[in-house]
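Dear colleagues,

I hope this message finds you well. In preparation for our joint manuscript, I am sending the Galactose oxidase-like domain-containing protein (Streptomyces galilaeus) sequence together with its predicted structure, so that both groups work from identical material. I would be grateful if you could confirm receipt.
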Amino acid sequence: MYGARRQPGRRTLPPGRTPRLLLTALMLFAAALGLGPLGAQPAEAATNLVKNPGLEILDGPSQFPQCFEKSGWGNNDFSFTVTGDAHSGSRAVQIELTRRADGDRKTMMLENACAPQVTPAHQYDLSFWYRSTTPDVAFTLFRHDTVQGWVYWTDLKTLEQSAGWSRTEVRTPVIPPNTDRITWGGALYGVGTLTTDDYAMTDATVPAGPDPCATGGTGPECKGEWTVQASEMPVRAMHSVLLHNGKVLLIAGSGNDLDMFEAGTFRTSLYDPVTGGYTTIPTPEDFFCAGHVQLPDGRVLVVGGNKDYAAPDGSVGYKGLRSSYVFDPATNQYVKVNDMLAGHWYPSATAMGNGDVVSLGGLAEDSSGTVVNEHFSYAQNKWLPLGEAKQAWSFWGLYPSMILLQDGRLFYTGSHVFGNGLPGTGASVYDYQAGTIADVPGLRKKDERDQSMSVLLPPAQDQKVATIGGGNHTVSPDAHGLVDLIDMKADSPQYVPGPDLPKGRYQDGTPQTGAQGKVYVSAVILPDGKVLETGGALHTYREDPVFEASLYDPATNTFQAGLATDPVPRTYHSSSLLLPDGRVLSVGDNPGDGSFDQRVSIYKPPYLFKGARPQITSVASTDWAYGTDQRVTVDKPVVKASLIRPAAITHSSDPNQRYVDLPMTVDGNTIDLSLTSNPNLAPPGWYMLSVVDANGVPSVSKWVRIGAAGQVATARVQDFAEDLRAAPASESDTAVPESTDHGDHRNHQGHEGVEMPAGFDGCDHSYGTISQCVPWTFPKKLNTVAERCDWLKKNGYGTGLKVSGRDRHGLDRTKDGIACGKGDVRKK
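The corresponding structure tokens are as follows:
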């Protein structure tokens, strides 16, 4: 079994027991096996599915309880003892750790017929009695997958230190498909002792109501419902950030409008989904194509932005700002912090387990690809200087999707914006602290992942990532519909093919065919644990929108196709995010003609049409410390609870989006929720807390703050991804794509920036040589092909430009592959 290296013993009946005790023990064991007269038990008592639950029957010369084993892994000194100091009966098991470098030790059920059987889609209440001299104890759970074998599943909760006997109980998540047995117990991962006894497991499944969609239903309870708001946004929302007050920060900056940039007109608006109103926010610099992320206190860190637009002739690309600001929801103001080490246009921004932010990639002040890492210290409220911000001197691309893993490393998924993927496999694990980078194999079409979207699938504890769709107009004219999946808890993680995106339709009703898929994908985690996939287009030319939406279920690895679709095209510069009430907000569309659709759409998922919603009637505290149980009350039975981090999204990129499962201890309408002790699974900050009933209907969310006042727990981490060959990063690792020379790109203290190839500067490279930059939008009054071709000639583009992609400007009227040829510029 992964993560639990065993010390197995032989199993026989123990000698020296008195007949009476032996008979009693055998009767108990037979009852546990389902062989005894269970009808003699009270009718209301649920069947205990654990065999030898009181640890009374010993097994063989090892004298260890039958159906249990000594389990664990790692570098530590330990002992297991069968003790008479029991909670009930005459036996319990004590584990002692006298030294620990890593790993744990635990008493668990054997991985054979002794392991309790389970039914997929059911939930189970697990409990045992314990005494512990340390709080470093986790309630850990493994499952038997009929395909993969035994695998580590999750830690359900962290136990409080207890000198006397204490009972701990927790409800499992829904049992995934292909799971037939589970094994579980207390894992000791700190120096001290843990004694356990009297294990119990009962089926706690709440039956769901009939599914109308399984019998041909086509109403909103199956497809959901979109509505377009009456009032348009007052800004071109390039960036969407959900604040912990429920409002949405819509950042435009110059809004991809050169005239606005030259006029110094930069815009931000605050949208209230409850009232539908907008508040204008003064915007000091051009945050067009900046990075952004929520800080632990709910403020929003804005990273870089646009220093200058690309030159029309392609001689200079976009330039990144070194400036950085923090937006404070309490005052609705941007507050400047210190400058970064380098400029960043299209940077990533990943929240770390200690509340800090690491930002990578983008374009520097001279339009080169920056190789400088940035580290924002939350405690100091500033960007760290060189020497404190750790450097790999590697180029990570534009908006590289960098997802924080449970052990603190960063997973570059391969999702990015513009151009080819990075050299190698196109995906990697970056250990920021150690400075090592290891390739991760398996990503298909790694050079066609421009504005694909990657998401850490629910729950975050599973450490599974999906990378969805994408394209690259310099490689292939059409976007694809590939979905690749990876389990980062595996010993040797690699992407594997998932189900393709469902096919959609184009604006004229024509269905998609063949390998056609989508770029500009939006993927939104929902409180029922599914992922809404919506929006997009066939081409990275901001054209040919695709009308299609589906629900991806991580538990079954399937898409529910045929959902209602957003009436508004959602292509370039579009984004979608979850609102606290369970609806989804979609904004933005920036077609190739330079216009911007400022309509706002709201989606009600199918779960909002499936009956009355459960309610969280009280939350004992809104400040949650890691590794604690938090009490809430509800008005009706619920089957699961979760925390969802609020979105901060642009360009199909939100690497911080995550859903954290909260195992439950249920006592009627009072529920204790167990928060992970690992801050890398739930970085500190504000989260949306919701509960879901058996029909999949979620409550309206309550806001809670995780790790308040800077509290960060010691992470309990299962070892994983150990077989990846991590190489130290160095300057030689820097990717330098082929490009025309734009001069000396040194963006910090002699370290060269990356010369950017065509495709990164926002120009249309379908015409002429790959280094030429034909504008996306011609100057006004140039309406005919002849006028546009004449303008290109006067501006040094020459005549007879080869068409290497789609002829989006209609300059090749003769369809001979040459734009602005003699036959193309005819007057009629």
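For the figure legend, we might mention the following. Residues 1-43, 730-744 have pLDDT under 50 and may be disordered. The radius of gyration is 29 Å.

With kind regards,
E.M.
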